[in-house]
TrEMBL record:
Any one of the GO CC terms: ribonucleoprotein complex
GO BP annotations listed: translation
Protein name: 60S ribosomal L6, mitochondrial
Gene3D superfamilies named among the record's database cross-references: Ribosomal protein L6, alpha-beta domain
Keyword entries, A-Z: Ribonucleoprotein, Ribosomal protein
Pfam family, any one: Ribosomal_L6
MF-aspect GO terms: rRNA binding; structural constituent of ribosome
Length: 102
């Protein structure tokens, strides 16, 4: 399969990890829940994990690649107070400041 479209996701957080198995057909995510999140990858998409915190979704159909990347991101969207979660590698999260004490 010739990969034309890519989408890179960065996982930020203590203990947050990803691993791909079955030749890019299954994606397992540890996101601080009591269980591992298991995602089945669609047929036109492949998944690779660089290190533990960078996931690459690739394929020949742009819409399916981006849709699957959005589904992965939706498992733990980036948080605006601490900056933890799954975000696109080129995404910039503007952090909010917390409560101020007098």
């Amino acid at each position: 399969m010739e990969a034309k479209f890519f989408r890179f996701l960065k996982i930020v957080g203590v203990g947050f990890k990803a691993r791909a198995e079955a030749e890019g057909r299954l994606l397992y995510l540890k996101l601080g829940y009591s269980h591992e999140v298991e995602l089945t990858v669609p047929p036109a998409v492949r998944v690779f994990c660089f290190k533990n915190n960078v996931v690459c979704c690739t394929g020949i159909d742009k819409e399916r690649v981006h849709q699957f990347a959005a589904a992965v991101r939706n498992c733990k969207p980036p948080e605006v107070y601490k900056g933890k979660g799954i975000m696109y590698i080129d995404e910039v999260i503007k952090k909010k400041e917390g409560k101020r004490s007098k």
